[in-house]
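User: Please fill in residues for this 517-position structure.
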């Protein structure tokens, strides 16, 4: 009799507990246990940054990275969607680069070159000249330009020099205007000579990058050199790379030089010192087209397979560094969240998509493709979590009031998971912001444009490691030793637990108060 009473009590207790609670608690505990004892976030980051390296669109490195991510997802038991999102007419791989000033006070040069710009074809030494600014100056020096390195007045904007037809027309207009300005300045000089007590100010020339670019290329220059602030930001030829073919490869080098060294060299040219610069730049092109892809890991939902929770980061990077932070950080954390869920045997009710996007740096191309091609119904996405910032730790989330109770319940296991990184859920203050009307920032943008929730974690530096995003953003310093392992490893656990909780709600997150329509 006593035995039957105990069984009846157990049955009552079980009936009174919501279905799935035991399984969910067990799975969450397993996620946390694996995340704390066998966290592999930094293994993913190390492979991306130090085995593969910088992963520019159209590079063999990005192609290799795509294959590796796909292989990892499959090895963890996920389905994989490979989604062709863009292509480059030719491929571009970066090799080593060196430079030095050949003189009694010579020095090693600190510089970079944008992606999709020309190599030197071996060591190239030449004299140095300052660019011509008027037609008269060009005619005077055009013979001496052959075999010269040319200093440009315009400072680096990190991108390659634009040699498109549109840029040529801008240069032509600027040259014409400056010719007229030069004529007027001659008149002003004459006037000022006659009226020294009341001189007129000289008119300023219109500034444009390399006004005689085409003429200097035809004259046979070795390359162009612009002053660049340190750390040197090195991006790409985003304008012209889509039009480059094997038959029309760039012909002259495009060099971004440490601003302090640029000044030394510029002053030496003004003094007419005798010296040369020597560069060896191994930029390599190869036949295309080169296609790049989104790699999306899929953990299929058991109850609501056509509703989705998503997380992601972008796989492509600029290649003066190794893309460790931007966005090896976001890719590695997303991948580890996927691995933790798979290793814990997670069976979410809703489908979870782990999105490793391509071509973010070329204009959010991969995520835009996913959205605009309606890969999944946008109204069936509960939330998309994007990670594309510093290697900091996820410590809170700010949500509209209609989502607050759901997030508090989901994130309960994270509150004191690590006392050094306590996690909080906060209600957004103030009225809802209007829905964005223009894309920008990162891969969440096209989702937000279409009204999809893009609630991501607030990431902080509670231990004060003095990480500064501006130091690595698209610069040569975006390398592995800028990562913060304990922050990234903890963030992977936070992301995995949150994704699982969102996927197991009995409803999609409410969009009430998300945007002001």
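Assistant: Residues filled in for all 517 positions:
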């Amino acid at each position: 009799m006593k035995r039957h009473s105990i069984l009846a009590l157990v049955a009552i207790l079980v009936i009174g507990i919501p279905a799935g609670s035991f399984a969910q608690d067990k799975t969450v505990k397993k996620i946390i246990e694996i995340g704390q004892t066998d966290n592999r976030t930094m293994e993913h980051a190390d492979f991306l940054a130090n085995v593969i390296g910088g992963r520019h669109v159209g590079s063999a490195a990005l192609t290799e990275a795509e294959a590796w991510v796909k292989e990892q997802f499959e090895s963890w038991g996920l389905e994989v969607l490979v989604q062709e999102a863009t292509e480059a007419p030719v491929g571009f791989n970066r090799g080593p680069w060196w430079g030095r000033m050949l003189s009694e006070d010579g020095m090693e040069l600190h510089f970079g070159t944008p992606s999709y710009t020309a190599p030197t074809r071996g060591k190239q030494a030449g004299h140095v000249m300052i660019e011509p600014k008027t037609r008269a100056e060009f005619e005077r020096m055009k013979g001496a330009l052959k075999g010269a390195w040319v200093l440009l007045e315009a400072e680096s904007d990190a991108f390659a020099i634009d040699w498109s037809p549109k840029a040529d027309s801008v240069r032509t207009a600027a040259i014409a205007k400056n010719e007229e300005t030069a004529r007027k300045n001659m008149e002003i000089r004459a006037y000022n000579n006659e009226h020294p007590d009341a001189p007129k100010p000289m008119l300023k020339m219109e500034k444009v990058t390399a006004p005689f670019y085409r003429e200097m290329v035809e004259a046979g220059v070795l390359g162009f050199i612009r002053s660049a602030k340190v750390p040197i930001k090195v991006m790409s030829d985003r304008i012209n790379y889509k039009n480059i073919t094997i038959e029309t490869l760039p012909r002259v080098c495009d060099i971004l030089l440490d601003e302090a060294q640029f000044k030394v060299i510029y002053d030496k040219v003004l003094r007419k010192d005798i010296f040369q610069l020597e560069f060896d730049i191994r930029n390599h092109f190869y036949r295309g087209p080169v296609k790049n892809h989104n790699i999306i890991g899929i953990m299929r939902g058991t109850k609501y397979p056509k509703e989705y929770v998503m997380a992601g980061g972008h796989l492509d990077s600029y290649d003066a560094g190794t893309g460790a932070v931007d966005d090896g950080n976001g890719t590695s954390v997303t991948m580890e969240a996927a691995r933790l869920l798979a290793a814990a045997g997670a069976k979410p009710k809703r489908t979870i998509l782990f999105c490793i996007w391509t071509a973010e740096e070329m204009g959010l191309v991969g995520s835009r493709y996913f959205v605009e091609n309606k890969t999944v119904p946008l109204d069936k996405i509960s939330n998309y979590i994007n990670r594309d910032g510093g290697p900091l730790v996820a410590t809170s989330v700010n949500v509209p009031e209609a989502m607050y109770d759901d997030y508090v319940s989901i994130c309960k296991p994270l509150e004191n998971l690590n006392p050094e990184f306590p996690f909080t859920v906060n209600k957004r203050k103030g009225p809802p912001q209007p829905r964005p009307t223009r894309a920008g920032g990162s891969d969440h943008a096209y989702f937000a444009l279409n009204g999809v929730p893009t609630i991501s974690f607030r990431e902080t530096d509670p231990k004060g490691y003095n990480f500064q995003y501006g130091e690595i953003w698209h610069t040569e310093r975006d390398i592995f030793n800028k990562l913060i392992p304990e922050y990234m490893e903890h963030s992977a656990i936070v992301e995995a637990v949150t994704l699982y909780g969102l996927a197991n709600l009995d409803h999609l997150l409410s969009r009430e108060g998300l945007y002001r329509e």
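For context: The CA atoms of residues 113 and 164 lie 18 Å apart.
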